[in-house]
Write a structure and sequence with these properties.
alpha+beta; globular; 9 helices; six-stranded antiparallel β-sheet; 242 residues; disordered C terminus; two-stranded antiparallel ribbon
Length: 242
C-alpha cells in the first residue's frame, strides 16, 4: 500500500539513485532482478517495473533484452544535460583538476532574504547553500556559491554532491529536465571576500557568472561563479538577460 506522501516506486528510485550517485552502484553493474527488488522494497513487480522505467527515462540505467537492467555511466548520462563541465575544462587547460565542497548548509533563518523572496520562499523556509572550489594543479581558480529551493529539491545529500555536479543531479534525481537556465557573465576584480576562496590577489581580474534556474516561471536555483586565471577563456557562457 502506497503512502500519501512519497509513492513506493519513488522510494525505490531514490534509494537506487543515491547508490548510483555515490558510486555504490558503478557503471555497467547489473541491478537485482525485478523479483529481488520487489522483495527488497516490499513492493509488487508492477511497481518495480514502473520505477525501472522511470530510471531508464532519466538515463540512470539501461536494459539488455533478456539480461536485465544495468547502471549507465555518469559520462553517458550527463551528455543529455547542458552545464559547465568544469573539471573537463580544467583538463583542456592542461592542468590536473580537483574540487572541494567547503560548505553544505540548510538555511532556516532569515539569512539571504533577497534570494528567498525571489524564490517565493518565506523568511524561515528552508534554503540550501553550497560553497565549492575548483582547482587546477592545486591552484584555486573557481569559487562557486549556490542556492537551491529545498521544497523543490528535498533530501539532497552531501555524499551525492561529492560525486556529481549539481545540475545533472537536479536533472536526474528530481526530473528537472524541463528546467530553464539563464546565465550572464561580467568582468570584475577580485575583492576581499573572493580572495578567501581563490589563489588570486585583490584587484586581479576575474569573471563573475550568474546562473538562474527556473521551474516553469519560478526561480528555484541560483549560482554565482567567480573564475580567475585562464579558465574563463575555456567556458562558453550563453549570455541571456535575466
Amino acid at each position: 500500500m502506497e503512502t500519501n506522501t512519497v509513492p513506493l516506486y519513488q522510494k525505490m528510485m531514490q534509494v537506487l539513485i543515491h547508490k548510483i550517485e555515490i558510486g555504490a552502484l558503478k557503471e555497467n553493474d547489473k541491478l537485482p532482478s525485478e523479483q529481488e527488488l520487489g522483495n527488497q522494497f516490499n513492493i509488487s513487480r508492477i511497481t518495480v517495473r514502473k520505477a525501472l522505467e522511470e530510471l531508464q527515462n532519466r538515463n540512470f540505467i539501461y536494459k539488455k533484452q533478456g539480461q536485465g537492467s544495468f547502471v549507465l555511466g555518469r559520462s553517458k548520462r550527463n551528455k543529455y544535460y547542458r552545464y559547465f563541465r568544469i573539471e573537463e575544462k580544467i583538463r583542456e587547460m592542461g592542468a590536473r583538476p580537483s574540487s572541494q565542497i567547503l560548505e553544505f548548509n540548510i538555511i532556516a533563518d532569515e539569512r539571504y532574504l533577497e534570494i528567498k523572496e525571489k524564490m517565493g520562499l518565506a523568511p524561515v523556509d528552508y534554503l540550501y547553500e553550497i560553497k565549492k572550489i575548483y582547482s587546477g594543479d592545486g591552484q584555486k581558480i573557481m569559487y562557486r556559491h549556490i542556492f537551491i529551493a529545498f521544497d523543490r529539491f528535498p533530501e539532497i545529500k552531501l555524499d551525492e554532491l561529492e560525486h556529481e555536479e549539481i545540475i545533472p543531479l537536479l536533472n536526474g534525481k528530481y526530473n528537472f529536465v524541463d528546467g530553464v537556465f539563464k546565465s550572464k557573465a561580467q568582468a570584475a576584480l577580485v575583492d576581499k571576500n573572493d580572495h578567501k576562496y581563490l589563489d588570486a590577489e585583490i584587484h586581479d581580474a576575474e569573471e563573475i557568472i550568474n546562473i538562474e534556474g527556473y521551474d516553469k516561471d519560478r526561480l528555484v536555483f541560483f549560482e554565482q561563479d567567480h573564475v580567475v586565471g585562464f579558465l574563463p577563456m575555456y567556458l562558453e557562457v550563453d549570455v541571456q538577460p535575466f
